[in-house]
Design brief:
This protein has 430 residues and is mainly α. The chain contains 25 helices and no strands. α10 packs across α11. It is globular and about 80 Å long.
């Protein structure tokens, strides 16, 4: 079977599931779980809003007319295909820029397309020799900024731009010969700390009852180290903690305790093996006291306003905040995922982020694209072609030729290609 045939079969299977799941599956909740998984949601995301576990979600999918492995395989083929199409679309635009801007620095392409310099170089291929790389200052000539100079620049940025996100600071500072956002972030621990130290009005923290204190963190490590294991590496802890689903994550441990994994394990192994003469007995008693992990976590289940969390993430991550980048940020702080925020607010990710002054994008930090712009190409194509001609590959070829967004992007924006077609055909019929 050719790759083209595999892609077509994958699209056919996913569209069949979306079209027929609610007819073939009697329980509507189960049907929604299957459709969500077919649309690309993870097992955890597919059961969001229910009281079901990830494993129960897998069982429900496997009892449907389609199996979880079958759907996962189809999604992987589609995602790889759409990623390739999107990459080729970006590459085409980068090559066009290169022809029009021979001799210009690669940094200009990085700023224009918001793609890393490494990716730009790959896309340019042999043409990268026509564009000079960034000229970096040597260590001897690099400016050493004092704390007060950094804080003064943050204040001036807010005064001139009215913005206070890390990315807004970098966009304002670098063209003036100032530091990047990493300098204040590293110097003060986090971007939020730097903003607070500058005395600039902003969101510095989210008030939330912590599920675990520092003693609980060490207690989890000691519990982990109390069992004989071939390895006490971080991935072993992650597997152990994910099975329990109640103890602190490895990311939270390292972020909160501010120590390397080997340092943490060294202490935990000493305590687990009762070699703790060097430690304070009161601290050892607190660490080794039995824990009801489920109660500790459930006691901290207080509601958090999604807007506050997103504003804090925008300060640390920058004005471009995808669901994926938010989830990485939230995991390190033991905050709810983007999926939880969307369910709680009853709104999509784009709506939540833009309401707080941020911008969203797909891979490569694409800027925010309105619904009107996202579907404009497909609307035009649908108005000029018969319904039988509105196919993924046919539209994608037409979109590339006419400089519209790719079929892959449109499908992701709508939730599926079938849904995107339904939206525009329904509008044209009105």
């Amino acid at each position: 079977m050719t790759h083209e045939m595999m892609v077509q079969e994958a699209f056919t299977l996913i569209e069949e599931i979306i079209n027929t799941a609610h007819q073939k599956i009697e329980n509507q909740r189960n049907a929604e779980i299957v459709v969500a998984y077919a649309n690309g949601a993870s097992l955890e995301e597919a059961v969001v809003g229910t009281d079901l576990t990830r494993e129960r979600g897998r069982q429900i999918i496997n009892k449907s007319p389609w199996s979880a492995p079958e759907i996962k395989s189809a999604r992987k083929i589609i995602d790889e295909y759409e990623s390739k199409l999107e990459w080729e679309e970006k590459r085409r635009k980068v090559i066009a820029w290169s022809h029009e801007n021979s001799g210009r620095p690669i940094a200009e392409a990085v700023d224009k397309f918001r793609i890393s310099q490494t990716e730009i170089s790959k896309m340019l291929g042999d043409r990268k020799s026509l564009h000079p790389a960034n000229i970096r200052k040597s260590k001897e000539n690099r400016t050493r900024w004092s704390d007060e100079e950094i804080l003064s620049l943050i204040r001036k940025c807010k005064e001139e731009t009215g913005k206070i996100s890390a990315q807004a600071f970098q966009d304002w500072s670098v063209p003036r010969g100032g530091p990047t956002k990493q300098t204040p972030t590293i110097r003060f621990g986090t971007w939020a700390n730097a903003v607070k130290a500058a005395g600039v009005e902003g969101t510095y923290a989210v008030q939330r009852k912590r599920a675990f204190n520092d003693d609980d963190m060490y207690a989890a490590l000691v519990e982990f180290c109390s069992e004989p294991r071939a390895s006490y590496a971080v991935h072993e802890y992650e597997e152990w903690s994910s099975n329990l689903r109640t103890v602190p994550s490895a990311a939270l441990l390292r972020n909160r305790l501010r120590k390397s994994w080997p340092e943490l394990i060294e202490v935990a192994l000493k305590i687990a093996n009762k070699n703790y003469s060097e430690f304070d007995p009161k601290w050892i008693a607190a660490i080794t006291a039995p824990r009801d992990w489920l109660r500790l976590r459930s006691d901290a289940k207080t509601e958090i306003e999604p807007g506050k969390l997103i504003r804090l993430a925008l300060q640390d991550v920058g004005e471009y905040l995808t669901a994926a980048s938010f989830d990485i940020w939230a995991k390190e702080r033991d905050f709810p995922t983007s999926a939880r925020l969307m369910v709680h607010a009853g709104k999509g990710w784009s709506e939540l982020v833009t309401a707080e002054g941020g911008r969203v994008g797909s891979r490569g930090r694409r800027g925010y694209i309105s619904e009107e712009e996202a579907f404009s190409g497909l609307r035009k194509y649908a108005s000029e072609h018969e319904p039988s001609e509105i196919k993924f590959e046919k539209y994608n070829k037409w979109a590339q030729e006419n400089n519209y967004l790719s079929a892959g992007y449109v499908a992701r924006r709508a939730g599926s290609w079938l849904r995107a077609v339904q939206i525009v055909t329904a509008e044209n019929a009105e």
